[in-house]
Amino acid sequence: MEKKEILTQIRVQKKLPNLKYGLKKEAEAFTDRLFHTLFDAEADLENELDTLATQFSTLVALACWETGKSCHETWDTYVKGLPQILSKLNADAAAIHACDPASLSLEEVYLAYPGFLAIAVYRLAHPLYLLGFPLVPRLMTEYAHRETGVDIHPGAQIGESFFIDHATGVVIGQTAVIHNHVKIYQGVTLGALYVDKDLGNTKRHPTIESHVTIYANATILGGDTVIGSHSTIGGNAWITQSVPPHSKVYHNAQNSIKTNTHA
Amino acid sequence: MEKKEILTQIRVQKKLPNLKYGLKKEAEAFTDRLFHTLFDAEADLENELDTLATQFSTLVALACWETGKSCHETWDTYVKGLPQILSKLNADAAAIHACDPASLSLEEVYLAYPGFLAIAVYRLAHPLYLLGFPLVPRLMTEYAHRETGVDIHPGAQIGESFFIDHATGVVIGQTAVIHNHVKIYQGVTLGALYVDKDLGNTKRHPTIESHVTIYANATILGGDTVIGSHSTIGGNAWITQSVPPHSKVYHNAQNSIKTNTHA
Amino acid sequence: MEKKEILTQIRVQKKLPNLKYGLKKEAEAFTDRLFHTLFDAEADLENELDTLATQFSTLVALACWETGKSCHETWDTYVKGLPQILSKLNADAAAIHACDPASLSLEEVYLAYPGFLAIAVYRLAHPLYLLGFPLVPRLMTEYAHRETGVDIHPGAQIGESFFIDHATGVVIGQTAVIHNHVKIYQGVTLGALYVDKDLGNTKRHPTIESHVTIYANATILGGDTVIGSHSTIGGNAWITQSVPPHSKVYHNAQNSIKTNTHA
């Protein structure tokens, strides 16, 4: 097989003319800059906002968004929401610092907690999702997924003072609803009972009411599943039905233990 | 202790003259370029193939491969397989888009699904593994592991239209065999029942037949374990024995629930 | 809302004057250089040690460390320990190669095992934690967490010849104690039974005695929980109480299987 033939065969199979990986890089650079603009003490705030506006235009051009509004108008709407997002994220950071015995300073939360980064990128992506831009917010949260191991769909609804610790393996589905003061540990899935393409417009992920704590690797599935407020879900618990408020759910170990006392 | 003494002590313990981390960087750059060459609408295909050939020569030189064939010959064999790999990956992307209710476009699958990246790098690494190059394909899939949380050994055998969603924590062992149209979710392990160095040449990971779906965090272990075709394995299931075709295996929750109704 | 007003609102909420993300980047560059200095055959050892000393000064300045000792003195203490850390890490690599049937060469362990990278960064961060620098060692291990999916707190105590395979999702808490020749697989949590801010100075994570193997996704919780030496903890096991030496603990599958034989 000649090189020419190989090239032809590859070209035939490249069917998506708008599959530009430059969009992915731009979305990630935009996300990084947003994050540093809000939190880095050394960011030149005014300049950064101007650069963000330019990056936003580039994203709009690359993503071929068909929206009623002009790009400029959309950015103006989005940027007005940034102070409120920052306020919410400061509350998230405070909640993490207040809850984790291993946390020594608020600076540590902002700089070193992957859970904080994941929440921040979700809160920055969610308004773009609501504004009707499907691809860029997904690229933003998927970027955070790569950096942190936390996969939050930008369509999820998450209340105030949200805490994720250790982070790796957390999955929060598109139609999950999380109220205020919820704490989640590594490996927790808020997922669908089963997956079928036809379910695209159905609520298929659970609702977590306020002041609920969900320990590591617990799995909560189903769009009708509601974890009542002030409940504690123990590590490894497997839940596919609703739980009333003020409940404690614990996984019972199912182990066999053999000890060789003569070893 | 003097600086000179520290230097001497460190030098004494550096025992591997071929431990060149440049190889790792080159393998990752090669993987990135392969991926973009196949999928990015903006890649200059002809130039990219030439650069890939040069990068391949560098990898061969760095990895000190002892092979019967010349480097040039090996590349020629590998590059001829690229159109077929691309064809398989397009089928994988189509399967992801067809199955996931949260997926809005095929572009989203290519750009934002870590499961697609993991499968792509596996399919690009596997032929090099079969050609007898042990280290570079491992560096390739380990690169994808870092980016996606999916650890697929390049020696695994994976059929067509393979789907991984959410991705983080998936482990597919060296001797696993996966037939066509299999779907896997986050945290699934296809692993060994136990690990011992002497088992290097034994089939120690399971076989998954066609049209099987394995939901999140299920664990399937053992080289003799066969999941029969058209079976569904529920989330969190723990399986160490074969399951006949057309089975449904569900994990039974083992929870204690206490609700404080007077809170 | 005017741009000026948005800027003012953001500025009001930036409360931490020392939140400099440059510190994070510097800590990561320092970690990378330390790693390559010890392992890369192509590193110019003498120059690298000089550059590391400079980077360390920058870190000290950025982190505003209040310590009794001068920065220079601290670096001198730290650098003297590097040969011993290297010696331990070579033993870790040898243990990985000796145990994993899929490992073909020692080079592969150093270049491609995320578990090795995670252990290396932990061993390089732990002495800085003991020297009383809280933030930089956390940034170091969190960097490794991002790259590998392994979250080891720099305060954990880990003995010799430690092995982590597949890596993603491992969490080892601040007060965990791990003796020699321990093997751990993906998704294992050595965590706290419950989390409360007041527990900051309490031992809340388990002790793993020598020659223990813990298979994938097992969870071991509690500061009083001791896994006795020479024990094997099966995958998915859930342990919140001590286990005597020479024990084998296995998770019993709790599955329902239905097979449609007429399909």
Short description:
3 copies of one chain form a homotrimer. By secondary structure, chain A is of the alpha/beta class. Chain A folds into 2 domains: 20-150, serine acetyltransferase, domain 1; 169-250, Hexapeptide repeat proteins (UDP N-Acetylglucosamine Acyltransferase, domain 1).
- Largest contact between protein chains? A-C, 59 and 69 residues
How many separate structural domains of chain A? 2
Q: CATH superfamily name of the largest domain in chain A?
A: serine acetyltransferase, domain 1
The secondary-structure element order of chain A is HHHHHHHHEEEEEEEEEEEEEEE
Mean pLDDT of chain A: 92
Helix content of chain A: 40-55%
Instruction: Name the poorly predicted regions of chain A.
Output: none
**Describe the biggest sheet of chain A?**
5 strands, parallel
Terminal CA distance of chain A:
64 Å
Explain the overall architecture.
- Chains A, B, C: Keywords: Acyltransferase, Amino-acid biosynthesis, Transferase.
- The structure is a homotrimer of 263-residue chains.
- Chain A is 44% helix and 15% strand.
- With 263 residues, chain A is an alpha/beta fold.
- Chain A has a five-stranded parallel β-sheet. In chain A, strands 3-6-9-12-14 form a five-stranded parallel β-sheet. In chain A, strands 2-5-8-11 form a four-stranded parallel β-sheet, with no helix packed on it.
- The first copy, chain A, folds into two domains: 131 residues, serine acetyltransferase, domain 1; 82 residues, 3 Solenoid (UDP N-Acetylglucosamine Acyltransferase, domain 1), CATH 2.160.10.10.
- Chain A is globular.
- In chain A, helix 2 runs antiparallel to helix 3 and helix 2 crosses helix 8.
- At the A-C interface, helix 2, helix 3, helix 5, helix 6 and strand 15 of A face helix 1, helix 2, helix 8, strand 13 and strand 14 of C.
